[in-house]
Write the structure tokens for this entry.
Amino acid sequence: MKRTTQLLGIAILLLAFAFTPTAKKIVVIDVGHGGNDPGAQVGSALEKEIVMSIARKIQVLNTNTNIEIILSRDQDQFKSLSERTQFINSLNPDLVISLHAGISNNPQLSGADIFISNQNIKKNQSGALALNLLYSINSEKVEIKKADFYVLKNSLAPAALVELGLLSNNEDRTYLTSEAGQKELAQSILNAIDTESKE
């Protein structure tokens, strides 16, 4: 009888452990520009609209119940760098990924860049995040660079900024404005987030 009671107690403990909810990972997608700040622009291609569309796709594609994706803006509105950073830090997220698209005077330049800041208090984890993004993005023209952008250096969580491509390059612009290209980029970023959540 004593042994049965012990076994029953162990079974209850195991069940309780099995159904204990896992703490959600909070990931902030910082959506660049917005409102009266369009960011980079070539013709009808606007950086603020492209990054908003990709950010929303990341949310939609996320099926991992242990990861919550929060956007720094969910509509076409302007928020200052300090407002965005304050909002990010108020959420105490596990990761921050800032989305942008660039422009160059040289239309031949193309490809994505990933930026991290040495001033971020979790710069080592930011570096690991950047590597996962590098391995996930399906392009041979991706580099990791250092830059002390405001959001990167002032975020209290590991942070990376992804410049998804250059609107001044015809191929990049076509890709960034296409449904297929945006979905592929969103899935690539989500793959990096999933990898980070398992580490």
Notes: The CA atoms of residues 21 and 164 lie 35 Å apart. Confidence is low (pLDDT under 50) at residues 7-20. The helical segments are 2-18, 47-61, 81-90, 123-136, 150-154, 170-177, 179-198. Residues 179-198 form the longest helix (20 residues).
